[in-house]
Design a protein that fits this description.
single chain, 316 residues, alpha+beta, Glutamine Phosphoribosylpyrophosphate, subunit 1, domain 1, 8-stranded mixed beta sheet, 4-stranded antiparallel beta sheet
Amino acid sequence: MRPSLIVHGGAWNIPDEAVDACHRGIQRALEVGWRILSAGGAAIDAVESSIVALEDDLTFDAGVGSHLNRDGRVQLDAILMDGSTLKAGAVAAVERIRNPISLARYLLEKSEHMMLVGSGAEQFAAENGIPLVDPNELITDSERAAWRKCLEDSHAAEHHLGHEHGTVGAVALDSHGSLFAGTSTGGTCCKHAGRIGDSPLIGCGCYADAEWGGVSCTGHGEGIMRIVMAKMAVDLLAAPPPDDPYPLRPRPEGSQSKRNHAQFVADACVRKLAHRVHSAGGLILLDSEGNPAAAFSTPRMAYGFAEKDGTFRIAP
């Protein structure tokens, strides 16, 4: 099976001056993930590595450089889901984990639980040899300054270079047919302490089912939760295309019609988000054959995917 990879750095009002930084960040995330997949490596490694690269990049709202909450602290959320077993590992509201996607993976592989939050998640990390960091290590000067401006004036996206709803994510299919999806975020700026959005919630910010596809979402979390957007996307992937007169006829692997159906699904989910709950956002997905699709209703979304020949297509 031909491997496939798609990553995103959030759907937001990316200003012109941040486009190059977003492009470089997506390029790096694709490079590390694709290096694993093209060598016959596992999808779980590719997803984790791609998201770690995005968490470590100050351009995006995940890991180091995330938005501060109302109390001036970083609280991080992440999820990793296995499309074969339908099991996920998710952590939320952690303050001392540099790369929450790695902790989510450890939970997925080593625990009977699927989600841990706050101090409980950090206790699990410490008990399993995952280092805890000083919370101040996750705070950048620019985000601290933005937080102060919000306190002095009022919360405004322009204080944060316009990325009011940033998140990162990846979906990968490896040559063995394994499918994984993951999402990681610092959440919205000036959020109430303990607020958890869609990102770490199975079916909302992320979902993977090897029979149909995998999804990572980004945008207004409360809206995405209300329509359970990631699960909705996978359910739509499972449905026959609306113009297919022979819904039971198998399609050739990698066919253009299959790729068009993946894009139809992505577009339909974003329309539903806008129509039903009047929210903005986006998503990336791979169908079960590795066909990529992305859609968004914000001015821009940072994302990219590997073409069949191994070249990368990156936006914006």
